[in-house]
Amino acid sequence: MSKVEKVIKTTQNHYLNMYDLETLNKNGHQGLYHVASRARDVAELKLNTHVNKPDGVIIYALYGEKRDRVVLIRQYRFSIGDYIYEFPAGLVDEGEDYHQAGIRELKEETGLAFHPLEVDEMYSRPFFTTIGMTDESCAAVYGTANGKLSKDGLEDGEEIEVVLADRTEIRRILKEENVSLVCAYMMMHFLHEDPAEPFGFLNLKER
């Protein structure tokens, strides 16, 4: 089995750092692998802890009494030099569970109030995002949102437009726009879900 022989932290940033992994593959060949991580030091990397603690939360919120619109954000991302459609999301703060993080992040990014649903753990436990590049994992929270849109909670560096997308707009976005993969899959799912049971794929208990 392949293994990591040594890990070296190469940056000193607040939210994201780079690590060089000196590796040995299954054939005995040495290599160098680069990993981005939210971990603050080598000891906190998931390859050392083997604990999948969520770094962030992704928020799947349906808006309105009919729950017929999905809360999306259209955000400028430096990595592509363009705007992309995503779900509201953010980091989980120390001492915060991901439901609390979802409520806080939706309020900050959109001004809306989020009402999370309690679902089976297999839907809400953290999953890895882009495992070839990072050990980051995120938990998904599901629920409804109401209230008025506001930009008051945005940070100075955030360039975000909130979109309350109905099924017609979702079809257009999928055909024409940059979309994150997780967001695209859930939008496709929403298109074909029974409008009377928009959370039918979850085992629901009201929180």
UniProtKB/TrEMBL annotation:
Residues 52-187 form the Nudix hydrolase domain. Keywords: Hydrolase. InterPro entries: NUDIX_hydrolase-like_dom_sf, NUDIX_hydrolase_dom. CDD domains: NUDIX_ADPRase_Nudt5_UGPPase_Nudt14. Gene3D superfamilies: Nucleoside Triphosphate Pyrophosphohydrolase. GO terms for molecular function: hydrolase activity. One of its GO terms (biological process) is nucleoside phosphate metabolic process. This is NUDIX hydrolase. The lineage of its organism: Bacteria, Bacillati, Bacillota, Clostridia, Lachnospirales.
